[in-house]
């Protein structure tokens, strides 16, 4: 925890009025102190230093922090917009800032922009320009004021979506009138692991060693069970400030692993909110001096992996008689199991082993209250005869645009042949 609470060594002197020995430290004396520390080799350390300057007899101010916290709204109508997009790996988030003349309320008020796609693995060097289209706006919890975070998708100068732009296809599916009429809801459970910066080993774990077996860590409290709560809590509040529909958070089964939930969100909004929340989490871990990992199985062996369970329902599922609609959706999902698995995240085969609350990646299954199935249906849904289903297959590094739109497409737009449907129904009956 100390690494989170105090990620950098702070040079901080407080003067006490009641102390007869307290003398004001001049700028010259301060510089001399830092020089002496540097001569001792402190500058070679990996620690970072925050230099404090004296403000008054009994208080100090960090000059850099003061500038970072400046409220510019009384002095200008201009705002800072942080344009955010997904990089060439399909999981990395990139961003850069620009000044906008005045506050905006809708992404259509923002200009398109461009970046060097050859530096993100998204374009060749001889034709490297990629165009950013603003799509969603969130309040900026880091800069405050009227400043904003802008979720963008990516296009060629000719207006064609580049291959890593998964939002474009998702928007097409969610704009289908049949899908719109069903008002698809998504609740996404994003799991992640916090790693120590120098050794890339989970936070709270002894370097090169292992903590005690899983059991006490899930939703646990205490210095020997909970590692990284400050990051989780800071992220929670930052998301609420930003306007992200975050609905909860908890410590996970593996120590150093956490989860937060976003939703219920409608349609394309689910993907926008997850990507914005991931960006905010990256920025917070950057400040805390820890590393964020979305690897679906960060530690091999008898340790839980990290998933991104996706809860899903349609209007028909939420109404009376919805349980039959859910079962029909599960049937369709069983027939497209391989299509979904191939789109549910890199390295997922290391996680979906049939152990640690997962189903085997090679076999589709469903059950009520069964966390070892591909699709779980809650007891309350079974009891009421309506509700939602949980797809437990997506990995922590899945693209939410892909997963949500594929769920919508498979359950609302795709129709299997009668023969395939009959065979799948038999298999599922045997499975249950």
TrEMBL record:
Q: Locate the GS beta-grasp domain: which residues? A: 79-159
Protein name as it appears in the record: Glutamine synthetase
Oligomeric form and interacting partners: Homooctamer.
How would you classify this enzyme at the top EC level? Answer: ligase
Family membership noted in the UniProt record: Belongs to the glutamine synthetase family.
Which InterPro entries does the record cross-reference, listed alphabetically?
Gln_synt_N, Gln_synt_N_sf, Gln_synth/guanido_kin_cat_dom, Gln_synth_cat_dom, Gln_synth_gly_rich_site, Gln_synth_N_conserv_site, Glutamine_Synthetase
Q: Which catalysed reactions does the entry list for this protein?
A: L-glutamate + NH4(+) + ATP = L-glutamine + ADP + phosphate + H(+)
- Principal location listed in the UniProt entry: plastid
**Source organism's superkingdom?**
Eukaryota
Annotated GO CC locations: chloroplast
The processes (GO biological process) annotated in the record are: glutamine biosynthetic process
The molecular function GO annotations come to: ATP binding; glutamine synthetase activity
Task: Give the E.C. number(s).
Answer: 6.3.1.2
Q: Which keywords appear in this protein's UniProt record, sorted alphabetically?
A: ATP-binding, Chloroplast, Ligase, Nucleotide-binding, Plastid, Transit peptide
Which PANTHER family does the entry mention?
GLUTAMINE SYNTHETASE, GLUTAMINE SYNTHETASE, CHLOROPLASTIC_MITOCHONDRIAL
Query: In what residue span(s) does the GS catalytic domain sit?
Result: 163-432
**One Pfam family of this chain:** Gln-synt_C
| Locations listed in the record | Plastid, Chloroplast
């Amino acid at each position: 925890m100390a690494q989170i609470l105090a990620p950098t060594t702070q040079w901080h002197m407080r003067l006490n009025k009641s102390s007869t020995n307290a003398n004001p430290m001049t700028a010259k004396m301060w510089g001399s102190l830092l020089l002496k520390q540097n001569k001792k080799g402190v500058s070679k350390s990996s620690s970072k230093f925050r230099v404090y300057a004296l403000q008054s007899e009994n208080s100090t101010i960090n000059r850099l922090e003061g500038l970072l916290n400046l409220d510019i709204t009384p002095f200008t109508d201009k705002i800072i917009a942080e344009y955010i997009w997904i990089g060439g790996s399909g999981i990395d988030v990139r961003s850069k800032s620009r000044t906008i003349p005045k506050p905006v309320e809708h992404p259509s008020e923002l200009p398109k922009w461009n970046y060097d796609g050859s530096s993100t693995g998204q374009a060749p060097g001889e034709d490297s320009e990629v165009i950013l289209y603003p799509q969603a706006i969130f309040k900026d919890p880091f800069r405050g004021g009227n400043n904003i975070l802008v979720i963008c998708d990516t296009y060629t100068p000719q207006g064609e979506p580049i291959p890593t732009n998964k939002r474009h296809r998702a928007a097409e599916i969610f704009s289908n009138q049949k899908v719109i009429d069903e008002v698809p809801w998504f609740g996404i459970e994003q799991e992640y692991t916090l790693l120590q910066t120098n050794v890339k080993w989970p936070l709270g774990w002894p370097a090169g060693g292992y903590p005690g077996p899983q059991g006490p860590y899930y939703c646990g409290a205490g210095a020997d069970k909970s590692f990284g709560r400050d990051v989780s809590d800071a992220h929670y509040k930052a998301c609420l400030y930003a306007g992200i529909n975050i609905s909860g958070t908890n410590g996970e089964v593996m120590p150093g692993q956490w989860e937060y939930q976003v939703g219920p969100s409608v349609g394309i909004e689910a993907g926008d909110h997850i990507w914005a929340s991931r960006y905010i989490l990256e920025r917070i871990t950057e400040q805390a001096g820890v590393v964020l990992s979305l690897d679906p199985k960060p530690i091999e062996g008898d340790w839980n992996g990290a998933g991104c369970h996706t809860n899903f329902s349609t209007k028909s599922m939420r109404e009376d008689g919805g349980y039959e609609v859910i079962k029909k959706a599960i049937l369709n999902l069983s027939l497209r199991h391989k299509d979904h698995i191939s789109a549910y995240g890199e390295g997922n085969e290391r996680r979906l082993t049939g152990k640690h609350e997962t189903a085997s990646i090679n076999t589709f299954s469903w059950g009520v209250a069964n966390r070892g199935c591909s699709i779980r249906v809650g007891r309350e849904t079974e009891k009421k005869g309506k509700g939602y289903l949980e797809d437990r297959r997506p990995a922590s590094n899945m693209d939410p645009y892909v997963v949500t739109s594929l769920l919508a497409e498979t359950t609302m737009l795709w129709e299997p042949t009668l023969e395939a449907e009959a065979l799948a129904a038999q298999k599922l009956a045997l499975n249950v």
